[in-house]
Amino acid sequence: MTIRVEKHGLQVAAEYADFIEKSALPGTGVQVDAFWQGLSQLVHDFGPENRSLLAKREEIQGQIDAWHIQHRETPHNAEAYSAFLRDIGYLLPEGDDFEIETENVDPEIAHVPGPQLVVPITNARFALNAANARWGSLYDALYGTDAMGDLPVGKGYDSARGARVIAWGRDMLDRVFPLVAGSWSDIMEVSMQGGALSPELSNSAQFAGYVGKAEAPSRVLLKNNGLHVILEIDATGTIGAADQASINDITLESALSTIMDCEDSVAAVDAEDKVLAYGNWLGLMKRDLSVEVHKGSSSFTRSLNPDLDYTKVAGAQASLKGRSLLLVRNVGHLMTNPAVLDRDGVEAGEGLMDAITTVMIAMHDLQAEGGNSQHGSVYVVKPKMHGPEEVDFACRIFDHVEQALGLPRNTVKIGIMDEERRTSANLKACIRAARYRVAFINTGFLDRTGDEIYTAMEAGPMVPKGEMKSTPWISAYEDRNVDIGLACGLKGRAQIGKGMWAMPDLMQAMLEAKAGHPQAGATCAWVPSPTAATLHVTHYHEINVHEVQDHLKAGGSRGTLQDLLTIPVMTGKTLSDDAITREIENNAQGILGYVVRWVDQGVGCSKVPDINNVGLMEDRATCRISSQALANWLHHGVVDEAQVHAAMQKMAAVVDAQNAADPDYRPMAPEFDGLAYQAACDLVFKGRVQPSGYTEPVLHARRLQLKSAAG
């Protein structure tokens, strides 16, 4: 039973209260009473409005459902549909042109494009790895992955593979840092000669500095498109000893920014889980987070990297940040958490808790020298908002948080995740609502597709999941996000982002495909690992995103609102029985593989083998699209319950086999009566009635049930 204490009319779980008062608040300058009063006002003053906004979502959805049912037997009329959406307030006027006025934005957000990581804040080791992924070894990233077309074989160092890695690196240097004469493959040494780099660069401004002695540096810093590259010079190193120029490695500035995630990639259902999440965020902000890492018979302590000191070309001393710029993703407006109850015993909005708690914790960084933000800002990514009214609500929440904590107005910068259909259709108005705070917009294909299916559920059966990316709405969605962001003045003030590469083991494919994100004008794109960040950053060296953005802005808008509102139904399309079976089993396997770890082990993000044993990074967004896809086909009779139950049971056995080596894993087959299996079935068979098709209510309920049973 949860022990609670009373705080300004709130009933607060004791472990959350203890964490706030004994660990988080000391050192911020915020008084205990001021914090609890601020949270109480959030819960009691903003909570009713939060619930009203959620009710409005349901009201609008009911009107859309009724419209589709009424018009189901007639050809779709795009003009009439758009007029209807305006009549019900789903589509709102864009308003006059404007540009955002966000101030005090760090260069990693405003000026320098590069990869972005998203990591579950509840896993301290992952969080530290991601924060330290500001710098990564190109040689390691190439050698240990399939980036060059194959994987390493056997144990020990393969000199032939090493030679291919070195050649790849030298070729990149030739393209990005061309020499006045010859190739990087031919140089015999790297040094300073008469205040200039030897070998001589075609663009001398690309030489940024060095570490060590000028005539024999241990590190040489180069710079291109705002990104640094370090040549590691070591004649005694494993690689450098055999290298004619003694280059032992090439270190790339990689993950410029990282989102520490309290939302889709974590399983945080109660005070215990929230304290774990907040505690790791506190450790990052105080820069004292550490974790013991065990590898084989050895162990070591992992902590945050220090900054890199170096000498500029002119001789002045300087430093580069050793860590990624950290953003924190709060939860959306939907979920509540039993960690805090209001005066009527109703669970508080989890997003309200996150808002004041994560910002208060970030004050440790704001008061420190050389901290996360060099400009006195806190970056909060806000997901799953439906339209400008909800964005405005989020901004007013942070108005209150800043006032309660004694922070200057607009200290908190927000990231608007463009992952719900009503936000996509009203993106300009959403940005306007946050014009003094917005520092980030992005697209998220999976959540956005889940909402696409749910919103138009009554329009008819949707195309298979794999065909979604070739439908008109997705192209319009991706293009309009960039175009509207540029038109609203985000260049030089905010990030424009693209979504995740979900296959962490397929780095060659990522290198081939993910260049499309900077080519599309995105200043950041999500990658699944520090290694992927090191490989993906090579795209930002070869593609000048700012020039791409200038070209796109001059070319005018792409994609129309009508394209965006095109509903991806299977009009006139017939699928074979085999195709239907494959689709059911593929979705069922993905749902089960994710949910079994979420419910049974509290793992909110993991690499889940798909039906073809390709490891995919799965979080609640991937689960949402799969469950909604099956719910849609069930609703329209493409499949029946018996088919889906059969597929779920068949795939449960497959997932069991894929997890056989995990000693903590609890098999689902053959009884199919565990809470995880029941949760997976709930997501499908009750998917039609879940709010906006979200997975959180089902997952939280089953996880809480399991934790309660375990005592």
UniProtKB/TrEMBL annotation:
InterPro entries: Malate_synth_C_sf, Malate_synth_sf, Malate_synthase_TIM, Malate_synthG, MS_C, MS_N, MS_N_TIM-barrel_dom, MSG_insertion. Signal peptide: none annotated. The modification Cysteine sulfenic acid (-SOH) is found at C605. GO terms for cellular component: cytosol. Its EC number is 2.3.3.9. Residues 326-566 form the Malate synthase TIM barrel domain. Keywords: Acyltransferase, Cytoplasm, Glyoxylate bypass, Magnesium, Metal-binding, Oxidation, Transferase, Tricarboxylic acid cycle. Pathway: Carbohydrate metabolism; glyoxylate cycle; (S)-malate from isocitrate: step 2/2. SUPFAM superfamilies: Malate synthase G (SSF51645). It catalyses: glyoxylate + acetyl-CoA + H2O = (S)-malate + CoA + H(+). Residues 17-71 form the Malate synthase N-terminal domain. Glyoxylate binds at R329, E419, G444, F445, L446, D447. The keyword Transit peptide does not apply. Acetyl-CoA binds at V118, R125, F126, S265, R302, P528. This is Malate synthase G. The gene is glcB.
